[in-house]
Amino acid sequence: MNSLKFISNEIKSTQHAFLRLSKTKRLVLGSLFASLAALFQSAGGLFPGIGYFISPLATAPILFCSMLSIPLGCISYMLTTVLLLTLQPSELIIFPFTTGLLGIGTGAAFFIFNNRISIMVSGATLLTVGISILLYGFKFPVLGPTVTHNFSFLTLGFIFLFSNFYNWTWVEISLAIFKRVKAIISS
Question: How far apart are CA 161 and CA 45, in angstroms?
Fold first, then answer.
């Protein structure tokens, strides 16, 4: 089964190569990732309709930055939140608890775990916690008006199943992109 396979050393070697860069280059790369994440996240408010399909891409820059370095991923996460405060304040409550948290959690899981299933479950758990905080803690209708903000184990189970599928998609996309980047760098 593909989800039980171990992560190859390509990611670990890319992480080590990234850490050999100067601090200035790492910070510039982190700020570029944060800028991209803020633009993607604010697309939902700036371009209604098509922007809602672009908005989930805000996970990618934070995820890739966190895969390279956890502290730099956290800095990019915080910088994106500050950028959203000025660009699109209406997205400020969504990003820190959903797309940004998923990126940080999954990127950090690449450092901690070596197999895909552990990475997927840890990122999905964080996304479920973030959605639950918005839905049940803040009573924010993050899933739309059809999902009630009264606690339900059934709803929580569906959120966790969706989070697992969604995070599995991001794990596979990020692994495919990392393999291509490694091939380009080694050429």
Answer: 27
| Burial readout 55-91 (b: 16 or more C-beta within 10 A, e: otherwise) | bbebbbbbbbbbbbbbebbbbbbebbbebbeebbeeb
Handedness of CA 128, 169, 89, 150 (dihedral sign): negative
Half-sphere exposure of 146 (CA within 13 A, CB side): 1
Q: Where are the domains of the chain?
A: 9-186
Residue 115 pLDDT > 90: no
Q: Report whether 19 contacts 118 (CB < 8 A).
A: no
Name residue, tokens 């989070």. Answer: 163
Coil, helix or strand at residue 107: helix
pTM of the model: 0.89
Right CATH for 9-186 from 3.30.70, 1.10.287, 1.10.10, 1.10.1760: 1.10.1760
